[in-house]
Design goal:
The chain has 254 residues and is α/β, with parallel strands linked by helices. It is 47% helix and 15% strand. It has a 7-stranded parallel beta sheet, with helices on both faces.
């Protein structure tokens, strides 16, 4: 069984939400996982949870928008597990506001975490992948890449990640490295809970509203995204590159 067995994976923003489920899934499938997050304690407790369940993981504290942090995290991971084969660019933040109210800081932070973060992690990781002639880079885009009210910054960043993905696919393909993106719709996490509360509702109301508008009639869960990451990350998926899969319950079809 190939899949991700014995591969080394780095999941950014891996301490909670989608990233945590991705880290659990890759570890359950046999990968050694670096759980990278801003907060050292939460990265370590997620890694400890994975280890307690029989997997192999370490926590790595880093801000993905800082080159020295990402370099240090990758160096630690490679020293610990002997390589880096799978990168999941997942760390993200929201700073939603209508365009006329959006501040420079709202714009810059979102660009820095999503775009600079994915650029830095991909650039630093690819050195190890190219050397090994093997790699999988998976970036978390969003249905918001298609445009979303109140998300000029986030929509731009998520569309940018699709462009980055296609360019990485072109540049790194000859070295055995694929690059793909996942565009989730509504997935229940702390991020969507905060969004629901910001607009004066609850996560339950948001889940019901989404369920009534998508063909599969339910909201998305982190496991839906982890499953797609596992697919792209597998050795057997080596002929798939430069793709974006929308994991959104069929949003927009009805
Ligand atoms: P989440 O629960 O807020 O988790 C995001 C994680 O990223 C947090 O652990 C956060 O740490 C970490 N993070 C933030 N800034 C970071 C930085 N500079 N360096 C390192 N880590 C950082 O969000 P989620 O819902 O799981 O989303 C994960 C990804 O999927 C994001 O890229 C998001 O845009 C994307 N996505 C989510 C949905 C959805 O419906 N949930 C839909 C489409 C796309 P702290 O908590 O310490 O800040």
């Amino acid at each position: 069984m190939a899949g991700v067995q014995d591969r080394v994976a780095l999941v950014t923003g891996g301490a909670q939400g989608i990233g945590a489920e991705v880290a659990r899934r890759l570890a359950a499938d046999g990968a050694k996982v670096g759980v990278l997050d801003l907060n050292a304690d939460s990265a370590k407790s997620m890694a400890d949870e994975i280890s307690a369940a029989g997997g192999t993981a370490i926590g790595l504290a880093a801000d993905v928008s800082k080159r020295e942090d990402v370099q240090a995290a990758v160096d630690t991971l490679v020293a610990e597990f002997g390589g880096l084969h799978i990168l999941v660019n997942n760390a993200g933040v929201l700073r939603d506001n209508l365009l006329f109210k959006m501040t420079d800081d709202d714009w810059t932070l979102v660009m820095d975490v999503h775009l600079r973060g994915a650029f830095l992690a991909s650039q630093i990781a690819q050195r190890h992948m190219v050397e090994a002639k093997y790699g999988r880079i998976i970036s978390m885009s969003s249905t918001s890449a298609l445009g979303n009210r109140g998300q000029a910054n986030y929509s731009t960043a998520k569309a940018g990640l699709q462009g980055l993905t296609k360019t990485l696919a072109i540049e790194l393909g000859p070295f055995g490295v694929t690059a793909n993106a996942i565009a989730p719709g509504f997935i229940e996490t702390a991020m969507t809970k905060a969004t629901a509360e910001r607009v004066g509702g609850s996560i339950e109301q948001m889940r019901e509203a989404v369920a009534s508008t998508v063909p599969v009639r339910r909201g998305g869960l982190p496991a839906d995204i982890a499953n797609t990451v596992a697919f792209f990350a597998a050795e057997e998926s080596g002929y798939i590159t430069g793709q974006v899969i929308y994991v959104d319950g069929g949003r927009g079809l009805l």
